[in-house]
Design brief:
418 residues, alpha/beta, 3 domains
Amino acid sequence: MKKTRFRIALGAGLLVLGISLLAYYSLTRSFHPAWSPGGLWNNAAEAEHNDGLEYRITDAGNRLLSKMSRTVTVGDELITDKGRRYRVKAVDGYNARAEFTGMDRELLAYMDEFEHAVLPVAGQADWKNRPVAIYHTHSAESYVPTDGTESKPYHGGIFEVGDALAAELQKKGVKVLHDKTPHEPRDSNAYYRSRRTVAGLMKKNPVALIDVHRDGIPDPDYYSKTINGEGVTRVRLVVGRQNPKMQSNMEFAKRVMAYANKVHPGIVKEIFIARGNYNQDLMSSAMLVEVGTHTNSREAAQRGAAMFADALPGVLGVGGNVTAPGGYGPASGTPAGWKTLAWIIGIALLGGGAFLLISSGSWQKARERLGSYWGREFAGFMGPSKKKIITPKGDVEKSHSEDASDAARENLERVRND
């Protein structure tokens, strides 16, 4: 008896704990928490993101695909501005080998859609006037040719690049929240600190979150490009692949790259899908943007940021001039929502199964209980109808089930009398 009670108590406790954790996770995400398990991935991914390092990604033919100062790991992916998709298969020191996995059909579809879009279309009414939020996790990042150093703690040159992005959006009639909270030092906990900043921004209901950075590779020519007669630095979009909104973040990044490159050809260099979260679990339209590298001039980075910002209202459907077909907002339906629902249902089933197993004491008894339960439920569902019948005189006759019971009792009386 004591063992049975212990099993029941243990099963009930585990079930309550599981439901409590699930409820806590769901509720805290609704209120935009300042902590997340994804932060553990950020610690690992960002610890080696140092200026001066250069990871080179090449294909099977040893052709250079990309280079960056952030750590590259097996499983990371790259999508070029032409729609070619690669997956990193091996990393040896600072050299990574990637294989071509095919053309990204979703990106190509967006490119085709925007190429043939000619009529202005208004954004969604419920989020059209919401602001775009800009912030800087690595707030010390600076540009050596202009700022004289690669790092200026608490007031890096990256803030002025964010100003250029914000100013261009405001010219388009977009509301902007540009938060310049510093998050020094630039260590493995920087994203934990910036998450608190994002939590404050989320209270103001933004339509998108943009974390503005710059790369740290030594080569200034890698990002430099002349677009519309101006010398600018190109932009890289980074999506964290370890967060529950990864699919919707990817969809957003692809739309942005496709449309921005239609407006200003070549302004977005690529999308890099990296190990980490980057606080992108907080919003489907969150992105990390790298504007040039520390060896580019800040002025070129500001011009690049402005060109990038010029295209954003069209993708988001915000501001006074919307030119893209439709808009993209956090309320848009994406596969991520269905995945979250599937996780909730799965956890509930596992919790219920664990409780049933522990309280029963064995697999056999658990199956018997489950079979008995479904048998009763099925019998109840398929049982005789209790519907009542009204006679022409207005009298209410007995239900069919009551008639059957009376007949059974009469038959039993006859058997006893005999």
